[in-house]
Amino acid sequence: MEKLYQDRDWLYNQYITLGKSASEIAEECECSKQTILSWLIKFGIERRSLNEAWKQKYKNGYINPFKDKHHTPESRKLISETRKQKFENGYIHPMCGNPREDMKNDKNPNWKGDEAGVIPIHNYIRIRKSKPEDGKCELCSKVMDEKEKTELELSFLDHIKKYTRNPEDYQYAHHSCHLHYDKEQRFLKRNKTYSNLN
């Protein structure tokens, strides 16, 4: 006996005209979704894109159960603290893994030393140099800058030379202090280059 979905006109009417999804047709015919998709292909009926399928789903009355539902500030704080505690207790993300001792730093064949880019070197220093315990900027010696910002970032001490992997060549400073300091350093670098040319 021929199944309903084996009739092209019936399947076309259900899928295209009435806008039913393959899942809805499969449920009605008591078969799998893949069976319906296979017959759509067999009959040459153009399938909807994922975007079109979701639009049709909402058009047919679907309501997202998570719409307008958000974490409260308290739950966000709890999630953040739980994750932080998890990593402090030694958790290693499965996508990151635990680097082998014989592949760390200069033992790694991809190690570039001081020839690495700015971001890798700064990341290397952040792990080895802690921020000041008193939270003060090492340039202005204040906790808060003129814009009332307290966040500190790494700043290279001597821009006349290349970036190094020595933590002593770096300081923690406010973003505004960092920009002002770098501007002065570039000015000194240009003057030194000009003096060498003469």
What is the gyration radius calculated from CA atoms?
Answer: 31 Å
- The secondary-structure element order is HHHHHHEEH
Q: Give the helix/strand class.
A: mainly alpha
End-to-end C-alpha gap = 98 Å
Strand order of the largest sheet: 1-2
Number of domains: 2
- Overall 3D shape: elongated
Query: What value does the average pLDDT take?
Result: 83
**Number of DSSP helices?**
7
Largest beta-sheet characterization: 2 strands, antiparallel
> Which percent range describes the beta-strand content?
5-15%
The helix fraction, in percent, is: 40-55%
Poorly predicted segments: none
Number of strands: 2
Question: How is this structure best described in words?
Answer:
With 198 residues, this protein is mainly alpha-helical. The protein folds into two domains: 4-59, no CATH class; 115-198. The protein contains seven helices and two strands. The chain has helices spanning 8-17, 22-29, 33-43, 50-59, 73-88, 118-128, 175-197; strands spanning 152-156, 170-174. A two-stranded antiparallel ribbon has the order 1-2.
